[in-house]
Amino acid sequence: MQEDPRVERIQNNPKYQQLKRTRSRYGWTLAILMLVVYYGYIGLIAFDKPFLATPIGAGVTSLGIPIGMAVIVFSIVITGLYVRRANGEFDTATRDILKDATQ
C-alpha cells in the first residue's frame, strides 16, 4: 500500500512541525496546571482539614466549599482557553498547512 504524497508533504511541512510542538506544549501546560490545582485541593483535604473547615462569616459554609467551586471553575476556564485557541490559531494553521499540501 502506497502512502498518499499529501501526507508526506504535510508531515515535512515546517508549519506542521511547529503546530504539533505548539499544540502539544499548550496541551501539556494546561494539563499540568489542572493536575496541580486538583491534587492541591485533594492534598488540602488529606492534610489540612481544619483549614478547609474554617467557617466563612456567621453561616455554616466552610472555606472548602468556595475552594472546591474554584477548582471546578478553573477546569471550565482552561477548557475554554484551549477551545478558543484550538478554534482560532490551531485551526487557521491547519487550514494553511492543508492548503500548502494540496498546491
Oligomeric form of this entry?
Answer: single chain
If helices are DSSP runs of H or I spanning 4 or more residues, what is the number of helices? 4
* Beta-strand residue fraction: under 5%
Order of helices and strands: HHHH
Computed over alpha carbons, the radius of gyration is 22 Å
Instruction: Let me know the largest β-sheet.
Output: none
Average pLDDT number? 92
Domain unit count = 1
SSE map:
Elements: H1 5-12, H2 14-47, H3 49-52, H4 64-102
Helix pairs in contact: 1-4, 2-4
Q: How would you explain this protein's 3D organization?
A:
With 103 residues, the chain is mainly α. The chain has one domain (5-102). The protein is 83% helix and 0% strand. The chain has helices at residues 5-12, 14-47, 49-52, 64-102. The chain is elongated and about 70 Å long. The two termini are 23 Å apart.
Summed up, what is this model?
83% of the residues lie in helices and 0% in strands.
Tags for this model:
103 residues; mainly alpha
